[in-house]
UniProtKB/TrEMBL annotation:
Keyword flag Hydrolase: yes
Domain of life: Bacteria
Stated name of the protein: Rhomboid family intramembrane serine protease
Alphabetical UniProt keywords: Hydrolase, Membrane, Protease, Transmembrane, Transmembrane helix
Length: 208
């Protein structure tokens, strides 16, 4: 029992550390962007252009001004921590799936000539991931977290629909799709491990 409590505490501490470092990185990059006359803005996802593929890798780290970043900061901190808290390794893998699916979806399907950036692709992915994973895993704690997230952020999910000028609904939509895929893929991995008689190892402590 004490070992489980210690492992859970270590996982939460690691999740908090990674989340704080990630949020700090977003703010540092926006300070640099502002100080250089928004030199980083062109590195967002620019659909169906060769240079725009760079944005698949870096766009979730970039924002179009401090107002944009401020609106994303609290959701990133809350949802990022919850995604990592029940297993940092699994949370990082889920985030990577959301990151890639969201970026590639925007690059393929968004309107050419547009430029997409911001951590909201992760936010929408994390919302869907957190809501879905508990039911797929049949885990009581994760179901409760998912219900709480749905109650808090269900209104935000309307952002996957077009109609808001200047808002990348494509990023929101494909981020959400990435969150669902992450929940499905990682659930299969956990189930396969259990059927083979293996237990997931304690979440490793990772620093960014």
């Amino acid at each position: 029992m004490q070992t489980q409590v210690r492992q859970r505490r270590d996982s939460w501490q690691s999740a908090a550390l990674v989340t704080v470092v990630f949020v700090a990185l977003l703010w540092v990059l926006e300070v640099v962007d502002t100080a250089t006359g928004h030199a980083l803005d062109p590195y967002g996802v620019q659909p169906r252009t060769e240079d725009g593929l760079i944005g698949v890798a870096v766009a979730p780290l970039l924002h179009f001004g401090f107002g944009h970043l401020v609106s994303n900061t609290v959701p990133v901190a809350v949802l990022g921590f919850l995604t990592l808290a029940t297993g940092v390794a699994r949370g990082l893998l889920a985030s990577a799936i959301i990151w890639v699916v969201g970026g590639l979806g925007v690059w393929v399907f968004a309107q050419p000539g547009s430029n997409h950036a911001g951590a909201s692709v992760l936010v929408f992915g994390w919302i869907v991931y957190l809501v879905v994973r508990g039911f797929l895993n049949r885990n009581g704690t994760e179901i409760l977290i998912g219900v709480a997230v749905f109650l808090l952020y269900s209104g935000a999910l309307l952002g996957v629909l077009p109609g808001q000028p200047g808002v990348s609904w494509q990023g929101h939509l494909f981020g959400a799709i990435g969150g669902f895929l992450a929940a499905r893929v990682l659930t299969r991995r956990v189930t396969a491990s259990a059927e083979a008689g293996w237990q997931d190892p304690p979440a490793p402590r990772r620093r960014w």
